[in-house]
Amino acid sequence: MSHSSHFDPPRGVFTLPTPCELTNPFWDVIKTSEHFNLQRTKASNINSFYRGVIGTIQNVFDTKQPPFRIVFRAEPTSTSLQIAVSQTEKGINEAWKWIEDSLFLGLTKLDDPGEKENYVVTKINSLVTRQDKGTDEVSEDESVRAASRAFRQTFDIAPTERLVNFYSCAYRSIIQELKDIQDLLKERSKRGMVADSIKVITKDSQEHFFSNLFHRDETYDTLMQLTSQSMQRLLKNAAIEPAPGKFLFDSSFEPNSDKDKSVLKFNSVVPCSPMVPPLKKGLEDQKRDKEFQLYFNLPTTEHLMEECSCEFSTLEMKEYINGKLQLSEGYLTFVADNAKNCSFILPLYTVRRVERLNSRTNIFALSISNWHQMKLTLQINGNKALCDKFCNTLRDNLKQQVRHMKHLRSFLSTCFSEALLVDPKKDISVGGLGLIFGFPGDAKKLRDKYKTKLWIEYLQTHGRNLTLIKNPYFYKLVRVGLPNRLRGEIWELCSGAMFLRFVNDGMYEKLQKDYAGKVSLSTEEIEKDLNRSLPEYTAYQTKEGINTLRRVLTAYSWKDPELGYCQAMNIVTSAILIYMSEEQAFWILSVLCDRMLPGYYSTSMYGAILDQLIFEHYVQNKMPVLYEHFQNVDVQLSVAYLPWALEYYSRLAILKINGDELLTITDDGQFIHVLKQYFGALDQPAHPKNKNEKTRETTKFNELMMVAFKEFSSITTESVTELRRTHQLKVVHNIESYTKRGQIRNLKDTSKFSKNDISIIYDKYYNAQFYGKQKSERNDSRMDLNTFYRFLGNIAGWAKLDDDNLTKENGSPRDNQGRRLVGYEFINKLFIHFDRSTSGGLSLQDVVLGLGEIVFGDLLSRMELFFNLHDSDKDGYLFKEEILQMSESFLFIFRNRQDDGHLGSVSNFIKNAFEYTESMGETNGVPDPHLSKTNEIGNLLTEHEEHNTRMSLPSFRMIILADGYLEEFFDSGFATTFQFIEPTEERSKGLGREIFNALMTDGMKLAGKFGKRLNNARPKSFSSPDRKSSNSSSKKYSMNSPAQSTTSIMNSNNTTESANDNINLNNSSSLLIPRSNSQDSFVSVESQKSILKVQGNDSPVSFCSEEEDDGLMQEVDRLLSEFSIDEADHDNSSALSIDMQDNTSLLEDDDVDKLLQDI
Amino acid sequence: MASRKKVLLKVIILGDSGVGKTSLMNQYVNKKFSNQYKATIGADFLTKEVMVDDRLVTMQIWDTAGQERFQSLGVAFYRGADCCVLVYDVNNSKSFETLDSWRDEFLIQASPRDPENFPFVVLGNKIDMEESKRVVSQKRAMTWCQSKGNIPYFETSAKEAINVENAFQTIAKNALQQEADPDFYNDFPDPIKIDNDNSKYDTCAC
């Protein structure tokens, strides 16, 4: 930027120029210049009671205004513009200074008032846009902008988080991190006529209610979606470290991370899509795309682009079918209104020709010919514009897909259906192990030939493999049974694995080649299980079969190193390999792990745990008697069914059929026993003694299928998906505690930290990691430098680089900038030091050891550490530059100490460091052989001779020990800066809390003086705007002691009973004055305005509550009414009191300003 | 004191994947060894009636999945266990090193009344393999067992049926002892004790 300023403009202070009243009685002018006014809100220095009132009103109307602002005074004809706001005087002064530096000169050169205004507006605009890039504060909508800023200022959160949307509600909560949320429930508030509240249960089983939400369902959905996302991240985070599938280092393989990544970047298998900015709109799209992908089993790279209703037909079909046509980047899909009736997924690369049929006016029809010479006719219902838009997108997408067409032919040669239909004599050699080792079962008895014939007929008229159209007959054929040779292909098609295989052509071979001979934890595990997969099948008694299985499993473990290999995958894979080629099996396995059984095989197996919960949920709903019995005898359903992963409806059917017997069991063992017996007898007749011969023929298996389909058909994929979403919150936290135990146990060295400390370090480590990275990109669970800044800032106060302290202290912003750089520099040094394996990342172990060295070291070891940190060339000496750096590090760490002692010590240190070496040099111009006997001094001398100033470790020690402050610092001070405190206690920091506390204090004072002293108090504080005292009091709030915050958490816990009913909320403070007109529930519902902020980057969320509850509202009402009495001689006071008491809610934000003026 | 009713002893076998848990169980219960077991998914169990100290007891032996990740599934059936058998492969030192964490995790999940004295038994399996492959010495194993409160230790071979019967006899015996302990409120995790002395007499009502 080529701007005349000497320093960068302060961040987070400037706002987009917003019109405002220049002469507002609520602002005092502090500074003024030709064009600008620096103002302070009266609320900041008038008496605390009055401040409370204003603060409350501002909160009620979401118009909280920081106490300082700068206004550009345009010419009298136009309105003034607010260009900067700040919470602190310091901040606003910096802004003022910057304006003086950069704008004054420019302004004096301009004459025309309009030009001046333009100049300022442009300057400030560009500044704000640049600074706030990536936040919502540049948003067009002013209310979003304001909310976003307030949000950022209220919650001490990572800048990557974005405000998604805000809803007004009656809140009661402290900052809540989304990832800690365990359960979300829609609740009916006790008072409301409508279900209007949301209950949030956090992992430490606190309950929070948010009531009076006007868009409850919308809020709920958004919350749900955001929580899900953060859960996904959390689950990925909880992965065992290192990823089991990551190759162990071997000398023959140079790890080239970039290259590895390219191997691992698949077209579609990245489990969570890259994080798009989860603004509300984005979230909706994301949700829609997900549903679309899930419904059609499409790769996750597909996005729903066009959608319209249409009528579909082919030459063979007799009628037109109504349905929905959807278009994504690579696929055109159709599903009939009655989904079973007809559906197809047409990859665009199989489209040969698209024609627009213009037979009649106002009818828009397309004819599509595909690779298999089928003509599909699509008649789009809609107007011309819609149809044109659809066609244009289709055309564009088709162009994009042309490149895939060239390997269509080779791909189809691997599909058995081609051979079956095109040239029955030519046999495609590609297939499963069954081709060589035979298929299980008796082909004759299974009437394989006959089935094949039926399938040939179907495929001839309905397309095949990539172009297949499914109609009811298709599902019937599937239920009759698949012919062995076609089985693999139909599986592949129905699961969507075929599309993946097509798009990722050659990947399987590449994995084999790239990782040939590599070893990982997973490959070792695979090796153990190869012979324990399907030993009864002949192929797996041969080397050939085992090798096939090994190749598929290891390839998968390389593809998804975080999952690696999970037992049971071997059994599944060995079974499907009988029917299909390795590559086909590989992609089916991918679909199975990523989409069909998400999380089932992950290192935490959260998918399986989730399923247990869902299954239990179903049992409870569908078979309450049985469920109750299980509860009574304390049998967990999960024990039994894990080895038999079945559809929910089959599982339920099994329970149902065996219900009577199961009601007699009393422990886990008997439960399993019953089920095992049942499974063993599945092929036996269900009713052997029945007179009807037909009935006698039905096996237990038939019966099972019948019961399953008949009784539990209501269980659909959609309902399961929904349940997964709602239950996953509970699962995550169980897993978290397990992985935590495991990780901590796996630490080889815990330094001397107590279990509790380690646990806190663990939490902070993973917390920092959670916010630190885009997980989808990572292949490495170690902490990087940026995350380390955040982590350390959480543990040691001096390491907080973005807090106010860096700007609050004396010194120009430039100094602060410099100091911050020193901070980064110093922490970088620590990072490098911690990183023992020089891998560029820190594991939990590294961090524990590193911190341990500092905390449990002694005076000497810590001095040595400091010395080594600053000895950048590791030559054992500190040179002039390095000594200066060290002193800057000292200054950086001491920056928050108020006393001069530390500063003096540092300057002494510098002086001594130079003087000592120099003085030694002067008195001993020539090295004295006697003296050099003692190494230290000898070194010192030679040092001095060569470089004039260089310091060895021993002389460094001497200098330090000579200074009381520095000695104390190394002896204990430095170590005690590292604090291991439960993270929960930090949560309640933030502005909302402060305001609340301020109000509480005021409330208490008020209660003390109850009733009369208002007259005296007001003028007094007006007359003595004691800035110092107001500053110090606000400081007190921000230094909220942990004990205090814990109490407030406790409070919210205790009041959960009454949380629905806000009137009872003032339980938490008996000091608040009861509302006089409490029957007026209209006011209490409507006027309580606070903000529920659902915060963003896919995770965390905070619910803000800038104020507490009814109690405060009552207080305000009360105060205002008193106020109006006291000020009875003012003209509008009575009007005011009526307004405030009766329909606060009807006031618009603008009215508040006016109202306040009136006062 | 202890009731004469039929006693059921619950025994849990834990250890890394592939150390031979399923084989040991089958060798003991069915006197058979097979190369064709599948990897255990989740858990399974077999029962066997045995005479211990002149009493007929039913042993319910639970075989578990060895892969670490299966642990997170929550192991409900650990609860109420009477004895825990830790198995490692003498030819695989990692399977020995993880015994510690198997033991810890068991104690956490099963949360027995008296974790200090809960009966464990350690089995070093696969001693039929050639001596040159062996990596965990008997001494090393014994030292570990001693350090954990004198856990009984056996070296076994499920394949050759070496020491299996012997080991399980000890397991049954220790399990019975645990079961027979006058642990009167065992089934009620949070008893409200009104009067200590009185409640002692109501023990076997359950």
Automatic annotation (TrEMBL), chain A:
Residues covered by the Rab-GAP TBC domain: 481-669
Record key words, sorted: GTPase activation
Record-annotated EF-hand domain positions: 858-893
A Pfam family matched in the record: RabGAP-TBC
Residue ranges of the region described as Disordered: 1014-1063
Coiled coil: none
Domain of life the protein comes from: Eukaryota
PROSITE patterns per the UniProt record, alphabetical: EF_HAND_2, TBC_RABGAP
GO molecular function: calcium ion binding; GTPase activator activity; small GTPase binding
Keyword presence, Metal-binding: no
Compositionally biased intervals (Low complexity): 1020-1063
Record PANTHER family: RAB GTPASE-ACTIVATING PROTEIN 1-LIKE, TBC1 DOMAIN FAMILY MEMBER 2B
Protein name: 19236_t:CDS:1
Annotated source species: Funneliformis geosporum
TrEMBL record, chain B:
GO function terms (MF aspect): GTP binding; GTPase activity
Transmembrane regions: none
The keyword Secreted belongs to this UniProt entry's keyword annotation: no
SUPFAM superfamilies assigned to the protein according to its UniProt record, in alphabetical order: P-loop containing nucleoside triphosphate hydrolases
Keywords: GTP-binding, Lipoprotein, Nucleotide-binding, Prenylation
A cellular component term, taken from the record's GO annotations: late endosome
A Pfam family assignment: Ras
InterPro entries, per the entry: P-loop_NTPase, Small_GTP-bd, Small_GTPase
GO biological process, one term: regulation of vacuole fusion, non-autophagic
Keyword set includes Nucleotide-binding: yes
Homology family: Belongs to the small GTPase superfamily. Rab family.
Protein name, as recorded: 15150_t:CDS:1
Naturally occurring in which organism (per UniProt): Funneliformis geosporum
Lineage of source species: Eukaryota, Fungi, Fungi incertae sedis, Mucoromycota, Glomeromycotina
